[in-house]
Amino acid sequence: MDRLDKILTSLGYGSRKEVQHLIKNGHVAVCGAVSKDAKQKVNHADVTIDGEPLDPQTLIIVLYKPMNYVCSHNDAGRLVYSLLPPRWQKRNPKISTIGRLDGDTTGVILLTDDGALNHALTSPKKHVAKLYEVTLASPIRGDEADIFSSGTLMLNGDDKPCRGAKLTIIDSYNATVELTEGRYHQVKRMFAAVGNKVVKLHRKQFANIGIGDLQEGQYKIICKEDILF
Ligand code: URA
Predict the structure, then answer these.
(1) What is the pLDDT of residue 76?
(2) Predicted pLDDT at 75
(3) If you measure from the C-alpha of residue 220 to the centroid of ligand 1, how many angstroms do you get, rounded to a whole number?
(4) For 46, which DSSP code?
(5) Are the beta carbons of 9 and 15 closer than 8 angstroms?
(6) Is 155:147 a contact under the CB 8 Å cutoff?
(7) Catalytic residue among 37, 46, 102, 104
(8) Cα separation of 179 and 199, whole Å?
(9) Is 102 tagged catalytic?
């Protein structure tokens, strides 16, 4: 149980003042009866606004990240958060991406306001799998799969070799690579280490979560139980 105005503010329905107005003006009901008491202690599930249930207490979102959107809260560019409903952008705790994709990488990005879940999925100890589709500037030589899976590939500036990664060649310029870690620019740096250059990068899957039938820029809500890791 929590104060009505506090619940609404934390879900992004407005500032404390705005939410108090909503309540005073009879928009908010508890168990079906209009409540004008901002301090009333209530259960999230019992509250409606103009007859609509509240947004979920915790959000887990899968977003199809388009090109040229950044996974940052304070970059000057186009933020992935701007693809979410404005109210969700005002929630506290904030919704954050689970890990990051580069601005020029497309595909699956998960977002949540569940800090513990975010931590669990990004923890270096957990080895959550991420599957990428890669297009390269130069033809694949043939020894990359062995090098990537060896567990000995050192990236420039790192002090530990990459964990073994699975490279599946599609044709001379296209492959998929499955990583179980999430280092900065990892896929691009791995291909740079074998003398190639990534020209297109798309994440197909994070853990078991894929794009499904989402179009670029679209998102859907999922549950914790949907994510297998
Ligand atoms: N590896 C990269 O180089 N970039 C990404 O966005 C994700 C993985």
Answers:
(1) 84
(2) 82
(3) 22
(4) G
(5) yes
(6) no
(7) 102
(8) 18
(9) yes
